[in-house]
Amino acid sequence: MFEQLDDRERGPQVSRAMTLGILAAYMVGAFGGLCIFIVFGERPFGMQVATTIIYTYSAFWYVFFPTRGLLEQYSLHDKTVQRRIPLLLAIHCAFLILIVLGETIWFSMKPHLPSYWFDEHGKRGGPLYVFVVIGSVTVIFLTEVLISRRILSRGLREGPNESSNVPLPIDKL
User: 46 lies in a domain?
Assistant: First the structure.
């Protein structure tokens, strides 16, 4: 029973300085994202451009740095991580294409949707249309982050080789 209480101490630890740094990066990203959406929001394809910028910024932070529930961090200086970057970029581009294509189709459907998609609905506080767009982008984003983190963790678990910065265990020397 008491072993479960110590599980928190066995996992990777994140320092307070790193926590504050990551919080600052998220706050800068949130404020910057708001500004980008305000600047690009009314231009043709402005929402897609703003989404692409913010999505890429957020994906970088959520993939490589620790977050709540995903405490592993991956250093860009590690050779194993560097070898996975082309695959991660290809995956990121595929997800960006999915989001931009989905938003473009969704925004083109907007004039043809019934009016209840745009009405305020009770306690939810916003139109159904906005919840569908934000919800679908969030699901796609979390899927990409989990896939990318799994690729990185699997690469580091495969073990060190001659081009990795991870030291060999003593019995392998």
Answer: yes
Domain count, the chain: 1
Convert the chain into a string of H (helix), E (strand) and C (coil).
CCCHHHHHHHCCCCCHHHHHHHHHHHHHHHHHHHHHHHHHCCCCCHHHHHHHHHHHHHHHHHHHCCECCECCCCCCCCHHHHHHHHHHHHHHHHHHHHHHHHHHHHHHHHHHCCHHHCCECHHHCCEHHHHHHHHHHHHHHHHHHHHHHHHHHHHHHCCCCCCCCCCCCHHHC
Predicted TM-score (pTM) of the model is: 0.71
**Residues spanned by the domain of 58:** 15-164
The reply to whether 62 falls in a domain is yes
What is the full per-residue pLDDT of the chain (173 aa) written as tens digits? 444 444 545 556 667 887 788 788 888 888 988 898 899 888 888 888 998 999 999 899 888 887 766 677 787 888 888 899 999 999 999 999 999 998 888 888 888 878 777 777 655 566 777 788 888 989 999 999 999 999 988 887 776 554 445 554 555 44
